[in-house]
Design brief:
- The chain is of the alpha/beta class.
- 20% of the residues lie in helices and 40% in strands.
- The protein has two helices and twelve strands; from the N terminus they run αβββββββαβββββ.
- The strands form three sheets. The protein has a five-stranded mixed beta sheet, with no helix packed on it. Strands 5-12-11-7-9 form a five-stranded mixed beta sheet, with helices on one face. A two-stranded parallel ribbon has the order 1-8.
- Strand 3 and strand 4 form a beta hairpin.
- The relative contact order is 0.25.
């Protein structure tokens, strides 16, 4: 019975997200372990991230690992150097896996979250993020198949 109720709740939430055409407001309305939307006036530094497809079929972020400090506000300048659409999502591993499973069911879902950006081929954009907690987090592309192809990275947030 519990499983059936959980499945119904997920289906209702998923349908609402799909019907609206975007996955918006979900992360911005609650505190996230990885931090919160940052303010452009408080950026401490800029980090450039490239999304790249390799000849061997793998897909990667360059760089694939980052270190930041707790309390630091980072402006991520994200460039899709590839030939297909990609996204950049920041979160805790468990939340990434939940989001990834939802994306597999609804691959056309669009995002309007401060911790994510979806870019067309050769597109660029930015995410401004304040890291409020020390710990191990990640970034990834949750377009179905991309995470499995290697499109993920680690973020270490050091306590200050």
């Amino acid at each position: 019975m519990r499983l059936a109720l959980l499945a119904c709740a997920i289906a209702l939430n998923s349908t609402a997200a799909l019907a609206g055409g975007t996955h918006s407001g979900g992360h911005g309305q609650v505190a996230m372990t990885v931090g919160e939307a940052g303010k452009a006036t408080e950026v401490n530094r800029t980090i450039e991230i490239a999304m790249v497809e390799k000849d061997d079929g793998s897909m990667v972020f360059e760089p694939a690992s980052l270190s930041v400090k707790e309390g630091e506000t980072i402006k991520f300048v994200v460039k899709n150097a590839g030939e297909i659409e990609h996204e950049f999502v920041l979160d805790h591993h468990e939340k990434m896996m939940e989001h990834k499973a939802l994306m597999e069911k609804f691959p056309e879902m669009e995002h309007d979250d401060p911790n994510a950006i979806r870019l067309a081929e050769k597109g660029d954009g930015e995410v401004i993020w304040k890291f409020t907690s020390a710990g191990e987090f990640e970034f990834g592309c949750l377009v179905p198949g991309h995470y499995e192809a290697g499109m993920k990275g680690a973020i270490t947030v050091a306590a200050h």
